[in-house]
Write a structure and sequence with these properties.
Layout: H1 26-33, H2 37-55, H3 60-71, H4 81-85
Helix pairs in contact: 1-2
Protein name: IcmT/TraK family protein
Transmembrane segments: 35-55
Keywords: Membrane, Transmembrane, Transmembrane helix
Protein backbone atom coordinates (compact mmCIF):
# COMPACT_ATOMS: atom_id res chain seq x y z
CA UNK A 1 0.00 0.00 0.00
CA UNK A 2 1.44 3.34 -1.02
CA UNK A 3 1.20 6.63 0.80
CA UNK A 4 -0.91 9.52 -0.39
CA UNK A 5 0.22 11.51 -3.39
CA UNK A 6 -1.13 14.73 -1.90
CA UNK A 7 0.32 14.95 1.63
CA UNK A 8 0.72 18.74 1.76
CA UNK A 9 -2.33 20.02 -0.10
CA UNK A 10 -3.69 21.91 2.89
CA UNK A 11 -0.42 23.69 3.60
CA UNK A 12 -0.20 27.25 2.29
CA UNK A 13 2.84 28.45 0.38
CA UNK A 14 5.21 31.05 1.82
CA UNK A 15 8.22 32.97 0.58
CA UNK A 16 11.18 30.98 1.93
CA UNK A 17 12.47 32.43 5.19
CA UNK A 18 9.50 34.76 5.68
CA UNK A 19 5.90 34.42 6.84
CA UNK A 20 4.71 36.21 3.67
CA UNK A 21 2.58 34.65 0.93
CA UNK A 22 3.99 34.68 -2.64
CA UNK A 23 1.65 37.49 -3.70
CA UNK A 24 3.53 39.87 -1.42
CA UNK A 25 6.68 39.35 -3.50
CA UNK A 26 5.09 40.58 -6.74
CA UNK A 27 5.68 44.30 -6.01
CA UNK A 28 9.27 43.48 -5.08
CA UNK A 29 9.84 41.86 -8.46
CA UNK A 30 8.21 44.88 -10.13
CA UNK A 31 10.53 47.23 -8.27
CA UNK A 32 13.54 45.23 -9.52
CA UNK A 33 12.55 45.72 -13.16
CA UNK A 34 11.21 49.26 -12.87
CA UNK A 35 13.18 50.91 -10.11
CA UNK A 36 11.63 53.99 -8.60
CA UNK A 37 11.40 55.16 -5.03
CA UNK A 38 7.61 54.98 -5.32
CA UNK A 39 7.58 51.37 -6.46
CA UNK A 40 10.04 50.46 -3.73
CA UNK A 41 7.90 52.21 -1.10
CA UNK A 42 4.76 50.49 -2.40
CA UNK A 43 6.56 47.13 -2.35
CA UNK A 44 7.62 47.59 1.27
CA UNK A 45 4.14 48.79 2.24
CA UNK A 46 2.55 45.73 0.62
CA UNK A 47 5.03 43.46 2.42
CA UNK A 48 4.24 45.19 5.71
CA UNK A 49 0.49 44.78 5.17
CA UNK A 50 0.87 41.12 4.26
CA UNK A 51 3.20 40.59 7.22
CA UNK A 52 0.62 42.06 9.60
CA UNK A 53 -2.13 39.96 8.01
CA UNK A 54 0.04 36.87 8.36
CA UNK A 55 0.67 37.74 12.00
CA UNK A 56 -3.10 37.90 12.55
CA UNK A 57 -3.58 34.62 10.59
CA UNK A 58 -5.59 36.31 7.83
CA UNK A 59 -5.48 35.51 4.12
CA UNK A 60 -6.09 37.44 0.91
CA UNK A 61 -9.40 35.67 0.39
CA UNK A 62 -10.49 36.63 3.90
CA UNK A 63 -9.68 40.28 3.15
CA UNK A 64 -11.67 40.18 -0.10
CA UNK A 65 -14.67 38.58 1.63
CA UNK A 66 -14.46 41.17 4.40
CA UNK A 67 -14.33 44.01 1.86
CA UNK A 68 -17.37 42.67 0.00
CA UNK A 69 -19.22 42.30 3.31
CA UNK A 70 -18.49 45.91 4.25
CA UNK A 71 -19.59 47.11 0.80
CA UNK A 72 -23.03 45.50 1.21
CA UNK A 73 -23.32 46.75 4.81
CA UNK A 74 -22.59 43.35 6.33
CA UNK A 75 -26.15 41.99 6.13
CA UNK A 76 -27.34 39.22 3.85
CA UNK A 77 -31.10 38.76 3.87
CA UNK A 78 -32.39 35.22 4.05
CA UNK A 79 -35.33 36.05 1.80
CA UNK A 80 -35.47 38.12 -1.38
CA UNK A 81 -36.77 41.65 -1.21
CA UNK A 82 -40.07 40.96 -3.00
CA UNK A 83 -40.83 38.19 -0.48
CA UNK A 84 -40.13 40.42 2.52
CA UNK A 85 -42.22 43.28 1.14
CA UNK A 86 -45.32 41.10 1.09
CA UNK A 87 -45.36 41.10 4.88
CA UNK A 88 -44.86 44.81 5.48
CA UNK A 89 -47.80 46.87 6.74
CA UNK A 90 -48.86 50.12 5.10
CA UNK A 91 -50.36 51.35 8.37
CA UNK A 92 -49.31 51.38 11.99
CA UNK A 93 -50.20 48.38 14.15
CA UNK A 94 -51.96 50.66 16.62
CA UNK A 95 -54.43 51.75 13.92
CA UNK A 96 -55.57 48.19 13.15
CA UNK A 97 -58.60 46.86 15.01
CA UNK A 98 -57.70 43.19 15.48
CA UNK A 99 -61.13 42.34 16.96
CA UNK A 100 -62.83 43.02 13.61
CA UNK A 101 -60.03 42.10 11.21
CA UNK A 102 -60.24 38.56 9.85
CA UNK A 103 -63.88 37.94 10.89
CA UNK A 104 -66.53 37.44 8.25
Amino acid sequence: MSSSYWPRTGKSYRIPGTPLPPQAGAPMVLSLFYFSWWTLAIAFAVCAIFGYASYKNRTILWALRRLRSKMRSGVIAARPRFYRQRFTFDQQLGDIDFRVRGKK
